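Now for a chain:

_____
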Amino acid sequence: MYSASSPSSLRHCAAASRGHRCWLTALFLVCAGGLGTARAQAVPALLLTGDATSTIVYSLYPSPGIVEAFFSARDTAAPPPYGGNGAGATDASGQTVVMQLNYVDATSPLVPYPAGSAGCGLDCVQKLSGSGALTVINPANNTTELTGKLGAIAGETDAIFALPGGSSAVVQIGFQAAGAAPEYLLLAGNTTAPVSACTLSPFGSCANAPYNGAQAQYFNSFSLDWTVTLSTTPYVPSVPELPTSLLLLAGAVMLRTTRGARHGS
């Protein structure tokens, strides 16, 4: 894909010797090409959409020497006998199902993504290392649609991606169904309250604090209104795509300015 920051585009802008047009050219190229490069990944397959009464709950448990994180699926109206031990959802075929999810892990402090970014960059990342299980049940006939183990991919691929102060998060956990290859399970959606960070004390308590890049900062506990997708490639945070209308506007302004410059020369 064409990149606005490539040497050839910069050379072309310099050779044009029309400084008042270079910034428009750069804007158009960034909008049309640069922002799209971060989305070069496989499109995940939608698996489940959580009901309005269901949430994915992330709970942080700090203590001296180790910080743990727990994930579970909860619902205030899950069909019996799954209430309190599952979350109601709709699968890709429109069937009502219940997802049971439990995942326990050790977790490491927040780091920016990409590494070395000022502040959080595109996202802050909190790595996870644990195990658990996921089961999807059809309560109409009490059959199991899907079951498998969590924490199935080595290499610290399990992680939370979010921005302190933001209102959404993505949780990536390795998943492997019986007899199948490992995949990336993505729990994504809006948080029920703004995402916040806390700083761990030497005594194992976690005090709310703005993210400042210091060591021993973690995401506070949160609840997530969720969808579940499965992907063969890991999640990659990306720059939000600009609306098509803005891309067209940038192109039109660049074209009009170019024509005006030609008539005036």
Summary: The CA atoms of residues 80 and 123 lie 38 Å apart. The first helix runs from residue 7 to 16. Residues 7-38+242-264 form one domain.
